[in-house]
Amino acid sequence: MLLLIVLSNTAFHLWAAKHGPSGWHPIDGSIADRVVQFAMITMLDLRAYPLFAFLFGYGMMRLYMRQTEAGASERAGVALLRRRSLLLLAFGFVHAALLLAGDIIGAYGLGSLILGWLFLRRRQRTLLVWSGVAATILVLTALPAFTALATGDLGSIGTPATEPSTVAYAAGEADPIAAAETRLVTWAFVTIAGGLLAFGTHAVMLLGFWAARQRILEEPHRHLRLLGWTAAVGVAIGWSGGLLPALAHVNLVDVPPNAVGEEGALSQLQEVTGVAGGLGYVALFALLAHWLSSRRRGEQSVAVQAVAAVGKRSMSCYIAHSLLFSPVLAAWGLGLGAMMGSASMAAFAFGVWLITAAGAYALERAGRPGPAEALLRRLLYGRALPRQEGGQQRANT
């Protein structure tokens, strides 16, 4: 998941490239750049974040369940998760002020604050019903886009051009103070819109609540049929919804500029189908984990241990990505983003992820949590972390 996240964050660091009406990926570059752009639009854009939202909701419910199973009251468990959500908002604010405007910690902190208060203690059927309601709202808001697609009038909605994402993310701003101000404005929008109005995120987070009670990711062998169908259908829908925007981006199909703008028909199609794509990826990774577990009954390989170590330190690795990206690539730092294309930036992102995986593996070998997780637990529990939580909470903090 974190590899997909860091790859999806590459586009707004290409601040010197020429952008088209979508405002996201550059429209120039080598053949390799165009191949990478096509692959990202089809398989990655607006698909990684629903995946993250599901896992966030899953971990949130597992933490709540561990509290109640340890003897805490339901009210106390909800109060703990509420404090955690407020702390995540604070972490997100600092992250955006210093490094990354597109921070998602704050957005999921706000979303979890609301959804945790409303749904942590609800029945399974209630979680599924309200997840369906949120998904329905998302589809209804995209009805004009589906109508435009059905009629072929793709230019009927949206704006002719969208401002390049590099502007809102302040990647090309040379003044560090001005860049920080821009990042915070963007962060406020991302946090409020993502926490309150991202109905697709709400839908998959509630599904994460439901799935955690079923222990679907811990016990995939008990849910192979569900996981198989979800992977097949979800990935197929996700990739199908990204295919037309990708073809339009590389000029293999001709569409009006409005169609690929921020509110355009193809952009909305990509967002709606991205929810299914994200769930498909969750199921696919769960099946992969099941296959690895059944294949290797003994000691896990170093690669699997390293990936698991990243998962236990997901916030630390996520912030470390920004530490290795922004000061190196942004104009207020070394400015190397101006010299890269989509392909070289993707290679750089993969290298950054490998570095964080190596760091997480080293911390795992030393028996130490990630620094962000350690700070969050210290702020959440105080100096004396309950003994029962010490070893269990790392994976979901």
TrEMBL record:
Provenance organism: Nocardiopsis gilva YIM 90087
InterPro entries: Bact_Transport_Assoc (IPR052529), DUF418 (IPR007349)
Top-level taxon: Bacteria
Pfam families registered for this protein in UniProt: DUF418
Positions of the DUF418 domain: 211-382
Keyword annotations: Membrane, Transmembrane, Transmembrane helix
Regions crossing the membrane: 40-60, 104-120, 127-150, 184-212, 224-252, 272-292, 318-339, 345-363
Designated name of the protein: DUF418 domain-containing protein
